[in-house]
Amino acid sequence: MSTPAFDATPPTLDGFDQLVAGRSEYSIEPPAEEQIKRDAFLEHPLIEAEIELLDDCRIGDAAPGEAIDVSTNSRSGEFDIATSTLAVNGWCVVSNFLSQTQTQALATECMAMYAAQLLTPARVGANRAATLLRGDSTRWFQPDALSPRQQAFADRIEALQNALNHDLFLGLVDSESHYAVYRPGTGYARHLDRLRNNDSRVISAVFYLNEAWQDAEGGALRLYLADQTYHDVIPRAGTLLLFLSAQFEHEVLPATRDRMSIACWMRQRV
Predict the structure, then answer these.
(1) Kind of pairing, strands 250-252 and 136-140?
(2) Residue 177 within any structural domain of the chain
(3) Residue 4 lies in a domain
(4) Under a CB-based contact definition with an 8 Å cutoff, are residues 133 and 189 in contact?
(5) How confident is the model over 81-137, as pLDDT tens digits?
(6) Is residue 8 part of a domain?
(7) CB distance 211 to 104 below 8 Å
C-alpha cells in the first residue's frame, strides 16, 4: 500500500465559523508540560538556517511532482517532511496520502451516496441555517459505523495525527470528517475553520477524490497567506492539504465539473 503523498466549515458571523471581518488570534492551551514546546511551533518561526534546510519542502503547487510525496519516505518517518514543512509554513500539500485504489474507492462511495441523496446541503451557524455562502452537500463520517473505505482513510489520518503529536506536541486527541460534493458553479466563501468560542480544531485537512482533474476546470482551494498573497491548491485525486485551522482564511472556487473531497479536522481537548 502506498503511503500519504480538508473542506472547511461554514462561514458566519453569528455562530459556527469566523469570517474575514472577524479575524481572531490563534490560541491553544495545552497541558503544562507541553506548553513551551507547542509555543515554539505556534508562535516562533524557525531560524533562517533551519528554513533554508527545509526550502525544498516549500510547496509551489499541488501538482504531484511538486507536492510532498510521502510514498517515497520510510514507514518509520513517512510524515517527517510534512510535519517539518507545517512547522515552517503552517500549511503543506501532500501527495499520495492513500493508494490510488483506496482513493478511487472513496470517490466511488462518495458519488454513490450523493446519487442516493445521502448527502445534504451544508448549513451554517448554531441553528444550522441554509446559506448562499457555501454550495456543497455533505455527509459526516460516523466513527462507530465507518465503511471499510472510510476506515482506511481514518487509519491514515490517525497515523498522521500521531506524527504531528510526536513532532509538534499539538495535543491532538481525535478528528471529525465528512464527504463534500460541490456541483459545477458552486463554491465556499472566504472563511476560517475555527469555531466561534471553541478552539478545538487545530489542523484542517482536505483530501481530494477527483481523478484526472485539469487546472482549467477550476475548483481550487484558495489559501490566503500571511504575506497577503494566496496559494491555489488544485483538487487532484490523492492530494491532501494541511493547514492550521485558526490561522489561514481560505475559500473554494467554483469548478466546471463535480468536485469531491473529504474535509477533516484534527482536534484538541478543550
Answers:
(1) unpaired
(2) yes
(3) no
(4) yes
(5) 999 999 999 999 999 999 999 999 999 999 999 999 999 999 765 445 557 789 999
(6) no
(7) yes
Domain extent at residue 238? 20-268
pLDDT in tens, 19-77: 333 333 333 344 555 555 555 555 443 333 333 333 333 333 434 335 777 665 545 58
The helix (run of H) or strand (run of E) holding residue 202 is strand 201-208
What's the Rg (C-alpha) of the chain?
17
Q: What pTM was estimated for this model as a whole?
A: 0.77
Q: How far is CA 94 from CA 1, 54, 57, 132, 169, in A?
A: 16, 15, 10, 30, 20
| Number of structural domains in the chain | 1
What is the C-alpha separation between 263 and 240, in angstroms, rounded?
Answer: 10
CATH of the domain at 185: 2.60.120.620
Domain assignment of residue 1, yes or no: no
